[in-house]
């Protein structure tokens, strides 16, 4: 099948945000070394130009592929030799590896500041004005995804990136991220021997209109040919992979033999059958195999000519039972960033947040409340209303119903307006809303200045303004923010609201 007529690689929509790509992409990481020594820029560019000439226009790289951005620099060089507007360029941020990759020790960092830093550096290495698709490489569980997405959304608005993706993201992360800004696609390991995402990620993506990009579609090269199961190059990092080590590899060889026989039945090679099976999982699934050899590139393209019936697809999957695959799918030091591991870190067991009486006047709240002030900036930049609302909705879904804001949180009532917006998306009677009056902030040459005012007239004025910003009929709990010592407290608390605007 390697020398048949030229295959026409179809164009497909990746997600529902407008990005169109070739049905078969190209994973560029291997050009900078993984299975073998890195190629020179000239040799790597030759492979990529050949891929483009055959109709592959979707190139996938990352800031950590190769030493000091070697891979992005290579991809940037080939882009100068191709029509930029016809290439869909994807890169990633978030992972930090040691320079030599020797021990696979990985850190993940996705703070807003680091997102922007990585984007600027990638744009420079790639020597482009924009990135078509920008992925979070792995999930940083120490940073709320809403904060990361807020910065990515800004980069979209600035034209530096066009679409946002997530790699190895849990179901919960995908939902929360998508609530801030539409996610175009998720990139997940997906192959005949790694199919966990069929249970949870794939159904969610199809529900939300998110595309699925399959990395390592040949199982880290396992389905790429018998050579990798017999002898690995000395410089290959695959030898340390659990599925290619010792007894695990010996057990997995039996699976390869079975699969090779099935490929012969279909008149194609094992890698072609593995890619064909994956592409038959749906138009929304885009494999991105990589290679350093043009002959392998051409063979991969021929997988598009392999036609499978639904019965064939089932038979192929049955030939590689997941229960018979030996070894974890990821290196030990990277396993904690695998999507289900990060999901466990995010969610251990669901905690039931108890309800308690707050005081003796009848107000009942969640034992854990949520201070909303930081959403409008204090320790960090303010979140957009969309990002802030996403966090508050997530808090409510977990059982936190006691939300605390104030008339002075954020510029011109930013925080109360945000809280008011989320209340429109929640059952109002189940939320205990607290806000405050009394502080007046200003800024002069001496810095931030605060005045306190607790006159009855000012109390009423603040309450009416808060009701308007929050867009509610009543406030559950209304605080005096600070004590105005020039006004007797009896005067401040004696004001009556008719009709009743504050319950406590």
From TrEMBL:
Pfam families xref list: Aldo_ket_red (PF00248)
GO MF annotation terms: oxidoreductase activity
Domain called NADP-dependent oxidoreductase: residue spans: 23-319, 368-494
Gene3D superfamilies: NADP-dependent oxidoreductase domain
Gene Ontology, cellular component aspect: cytoplasm
PANTHER family given in the database record: AFLATOXIN B1 ALDEHYDE REDUCTASE (PTHR43625), NADP-DEPENDENT OXIDOREDUCTASE DOMAIN-CONTAINING PROTEIN (PTHR43625:SF65)
Full protein name: NADP-dependent oxidoreductase domain-containing protein
UniProt source species: Solanum commersonii
Lineage: Eukaryota, Viridiplantae, Streptophyta, Embryophyta, Tracheophyta
């Amino acid at each position: 099948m390697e020398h048949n007529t030229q295959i026409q690689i179809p164009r497909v929509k990746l997600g529902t945000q407008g990005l169109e790509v070739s049905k078969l992409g190209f994973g560029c990481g291997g050009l900078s070394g993984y299975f073998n020594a890195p190629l020179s820029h000239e040799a790597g560019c030759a492979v990529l130009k050949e891929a483009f000439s055959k109709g592959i226009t979707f190139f996938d790289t990352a800031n950590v592929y190769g030493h000091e951005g070697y891979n992005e620099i290579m991809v940037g060089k080939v882009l100068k030799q191709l029509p930029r507007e016809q290439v869909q360029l994807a890169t990633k941020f978030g992972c930090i590896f040691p320079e030599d990759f020797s021990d696979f020790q990985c850190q993940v960092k996705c703070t807003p500041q680091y997102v922007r830093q990585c984007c600027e550096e990638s744009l420079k290495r790639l020597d482009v004005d924009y990135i078509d698709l920008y992925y979070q490489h792995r999930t940083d569980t120490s940073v709320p995804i809403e904060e990361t997405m807020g910065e990515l959304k800004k980069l979209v608005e600035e034209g530096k990136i066009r679409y946002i993706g997530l790699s190895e993201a849990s179901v919960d992360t995908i939902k929360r991220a998508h609530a801030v800004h539409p996610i175009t696609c998720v990139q997940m390991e997906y192959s005949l021997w790694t199919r966990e995402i069929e249970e949870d990620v794939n159904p969610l993506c199809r529900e939300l209109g998110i595309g699925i990009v399959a990395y390592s579609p040949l199982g880290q090269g396992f389905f790429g040919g018998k050579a990798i199961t017999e002898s690995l190059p000395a410089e290959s990092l695959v030898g340390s992979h659990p599925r290619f080590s010792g007894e695990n590899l010996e057990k997995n060889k039996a699976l390869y033999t079975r699969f090779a026989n099935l490929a012969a039945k279909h008149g194609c090679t094992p890698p072609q059958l593995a890619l064909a099976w994956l592409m038959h999982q749906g138009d929304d699934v885009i494999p991105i195999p990589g290679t350093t050899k043009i002959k392998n590139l051409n063979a991969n393209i021929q997988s598009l000519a392999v036609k499978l019936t639904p019965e064939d697809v089932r038979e192929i999957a049955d030939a590689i039972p997941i229960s018979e695959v030996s070894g974890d799918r990821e290196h030990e030091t990277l396993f904690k960033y695998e999507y289900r591991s990060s999901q466990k870190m995010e969610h251990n067991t669901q905690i039931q947040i108890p309800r308690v009486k707050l005081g003796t006047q009848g107000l009942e709240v969640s034992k854990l409340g949520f201070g909303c002030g930081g959403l409008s900036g204090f320790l960090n930049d303010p979140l957009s209303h969309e990002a802030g609302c996403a966090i508050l909705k997530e808090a409510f879904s977990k059982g936190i119903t006691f939300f605390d804001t104030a008339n002075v949180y954020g510029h011109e009532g930013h925080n109360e307006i945000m809280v008011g917006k989320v209340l429109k998306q929640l059952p109002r009677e189940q939320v205990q809303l607290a806000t405050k009056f009394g502080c007046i902030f200003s800024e002069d040459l001496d810095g931030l200045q605060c005045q306190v005012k607790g006159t009855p007239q000012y109390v009423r004025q603040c309450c009416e303004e808060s009701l308007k910003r929050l867009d509610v009929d009543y406030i559950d709990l209304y605080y005096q923010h600070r004590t105005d010592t020039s006004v007797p407290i009896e005067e401040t608390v004696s004001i009556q609201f008719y009709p009743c605007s504050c319950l406590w």
